[in-house]
Amino acid sequence: MKKIFIVTGEPSGDKLAARVISNLKKKTSEIEYLCLGGPHLKSLEIKSIFDLSEITYFAFTNVLFNLFKINKKINYTVSEVVKFNPDILFTVDSPDFTLRVAERVKKINPNIKTIHYVAPQVWIWREGRVKKIKKFIDHILLLFNFEKKYFDKENILNTFVGHPLLENSTKSKVELSNVIYKDKKIISIFPGSRNSEVNILMPILINFIELMNKKFTKYVFIFHATVENKNIILDKLKNHNLDNTEVVSDENVKSELLSKSIFAVAKSGTISLEICNAGVASIIIYKMNSINFFITKFLVNTKFANIINIINNKEIIPELLQSECNPEEIFRSVVYFLKNPSLINQQVTDCKKTLEEIKSKTSSTDEASSILAQNLVSYIHRNRFLNL
Question: Is the pTM above the cut of 0.85?
């Protein structure tokens, strides 16, 4: 039986990987899987070698403080991959973890095909990383078409598959009566998937909601959580008298509630694409400690944090970062948009235009799963020929 080992490094990667593997499972059942993943991959009845939360760290200093532990997990993951001896090692996002695993695995067993999904953002961070990748990644799957030039330049096999979050997938009908208040308008809140992000942003977001409640009574605030951090968010809220907040973690419910939202406040990240795709205006927030921010500013070569702004080289979605990421600034920005519907419409229009430019014409998950299937067959045939 053919084998695929999937390695992710954080919840968003787990979600992306699960979409691809779910699609692949529909194409063929003749594949054995093992993974380092979270609840999304586990829901496909794929065993994870350890809990993904054990390696989900936020920012440079947290990584430095846990460097020994992370390196130990990398070594353990490598040993499990080599022991499993897959036909394909499928690494997804989180390059500082997943690509280190791929590099070490390739050195030990060059016969294992390595396919990486979600290219490292070399256009933001380190272009020099591309040359290194060439030594141990056989095929890289790109979310954005403009990334191709960086990998074509180094003759690295790559395919633009598009971003799965931009697909209009069919959702199951969900019952929202328990979370939707009559005569209330929804503002969606995205505090992040990492616990460390939630711990930093929740106090700020709670104070923002308190400011909103002093002035308005017509809004309900929906916190979009992961299965892993839902209880943390609930715990942060329990000591505050906020009866117009809800915390949801079900993917279908979250998607439906987002589509019914009039505005969103979101931690900087890929969720911004999902918000744009839903036709909802938003602002982006982010905060880290001063040391991490200084290091990031030193390494990053773009003036924006949000992908929509980066592509357009101008601020379409307001970014409230660091000192500007405070309750008063968030309150002022949100109220300004809510009082000026034309600004909301303009942002939605600009985002829609940008998404049309970067969307793949085919299904990203279908394209990625087809490449996995094709590589699996061709690689096995090649190995059989070499062993004759």
Answer: no
pLDDT digits (tens, 9 = 90+) for 309-337: 988 989 999 999 989 999 999 999 999 99
CATH of 185-358, one of 3.30.379.10, 3.50.50.60, 3.40.50.2000, 3.40.50.11720: 3.40.50.2000
Q: Which CATH architecture has domain 2-162+361-386?
A: 3-Layer(aba) Sandwich (3.40)
Phi-psi region of 59 (alpha: psi -120 to 50; beta: other; left: phi over 0): left
